[in-house]
Amino acid sequence: MSTERTFSIVKPDATRRNLTGKVIDRLESAGLRVIAQKRIWMSTKQAEAFYAVHKARPFFHDLVKFMTSGPVVVQVLEGANAVAKNREIMGATDPAKAAPGTIRKDFAESIEANSVHGSDSAENAAAEIKFFFADTEIVG
Ligand code: IDP
Ligand code: MG
């Protein structure tokens, strides 16, 4: 097991319902450490660039609209196997398919408004962290 970093977002559906603390508690309770964090309101340009990999998907436009519909909390998580562990705590993209006890099963509103983002590989984690954070903002 190696110590890794991953990138996480508390999405607008969760901040709107005042669930920021509850979502972060799930991550911390599972052993992940928040080593950088800020509450921001993404611009359309930022959201389009962040989700560029999904540009051709039918849900892209709605996804960008959703991600810019309210504030989000962007954060860097650190811990043993952080990328896979975070994905496990989040649960499947579609809350209807998410395992019991996962964030998405317990909090998500829909497959789109699914409360959290988490990087899907160490390589993407590094790119996503760089997209939102300067090195000096990652404070441990
Ligand atoms: P992930 O967040 O579990 O990694 P991705 O396939 O990378 O899932 O999709 C990115 C985000 O796009 C999802 O978290 C969700 O907000 C949205 N999304 C994915 N699939 C659909 C869909 O079929 N309809 C609407 N939105 C979707
Ligand atoms: Mg993804």
Structure description:
- 39% of the residues lie in helices and 20% in strands.
- The radius of gyration is 14 Å and the shape is globular.
- It contains 7 helices and 4 strands, in the order E-H-H-E-H-H-E-H-H-E-H.
- The chain starts with a strand and ends in an 8-residue tail after the last helix.
- The structure holds inosine-5'-diphosphate (IDP) and magnesium ion.
- The site of inosine-5'-diphosphate (IDP) has 9 residues, from loops.
Note the topology.
Blueprint: E1 3-10, H1 12-16, H2 20-29, E2 33-40, H3 44-50, H4 60-67, E3 72-80, H5 82-90, H6 103-107, E4 116-118, H7 122-132
Antiparallel strand pairs: 1-3, 1-4, 2-3
Bound molecules: inosine-5'-diphosphate and magnesium ion (MG).
Inosine-5'-diphosphate is lined by residues 54, 59, 63, 93, 111-112, 114, 117, 120.
Question: Any idea what the radius of gyration is?
Answer: 14 Å
Morphology: globular
The succession of helices and strands, N to C, reads EHHEHHEHHEH
Strand content bin = 15-25%
> Would you count the extended β strands for me?
4
Helix amount, in percent?
Answer: 25-40%
Q: What ligands does this structure carry? A: inosine-5'-diphosphate, magnesium ion
Kindly report the spatial arrangement of strands forming the biggest sheet: 2-3-1-4
Provide a count of the helices: 7
The overall pLDDT average reads 98
Unreliably modeled segments:
none
How far is it from the N-terminal to the C-terminal residue, by CA? 20 Å
Please state the structural category. Answer: alpha+beta
Largest sheet: 4 strands, antiparallel
